[in-house]
Amino acid sequence: MLVEKPSFGNIFMNLASDLAKRSHCVKAQVGAVLTKDTRIISIGYNGPPAGTHNCDEEYPETGCARDAKGSCSLALHAEENAILYASKNGTDLEGATLYVTLSPCLSCARIIFSTGIKKVLYKNSYAQYKGLDKDEGVEFLNRFGVETQQVLM
């Protein structure tokens, strides 16, 4: 009997969703998986830099202070954490694919483009989450040749 196997895309997006549950952010939990071919090269989730504090422990009711755009003033985004970890370990990201549970913000999109990541698959819209008119990060990536696609699961 032939058993249908899940696609690597589904496996990676499910892993990103599971990683999001590791986040200590009180407001949003986001996970990311960086891959090349069928191999995981890095993972990340949103939260303050290692060695600082955990928002859900230090500010359990409100989360940490907000910046001018209403975002966490202390946290790294899931994409940033995955990219920084890969970079710290000397991993080449040229041609990699990023699976992330929330589409990249504009700032993360610039970093994604600059590292040579060629494809971004995301589950939910950052613009919709933030109540914005458009997904600036997705538009930036598309404009400069990084393939982006929302994955509905």
TrEMBL record:
The active site is at 79 (proton donor). One of its GO terms (biological process) is pyrimidine nucleotide metabolic process. Zn(2+) binds at residues 77, 105, 108. Gene3D superfamilies: Cytidine Deaminase, domain 2 (3.40.140.10). The keyword rRNA processing does not apply. It holds the Pfam family dCMP_cyt_deam_1. Keywords: Hydrolase, Metal-binding, Zinc. The keyword Hydrolase applies. GO terms for molecular function: dCMP deaminase activity; zinc ion binding. Its cofactor is Zn(2+). One of its GO terms (cellular component) is cytoplasm. Residues 7-147 form the CMP/dCMP-type deaminase domain. Belongs to the cytidine and deoxycytidylate deaminase family. This is dCMP deaminase, putative. It comes from Arcticibacter svalbardensis MN12-7. The lineage of its organism: Bacteria, Pseudomonadati, Bacteroidota, Sphingobacteriia, Sphingobacteriales.
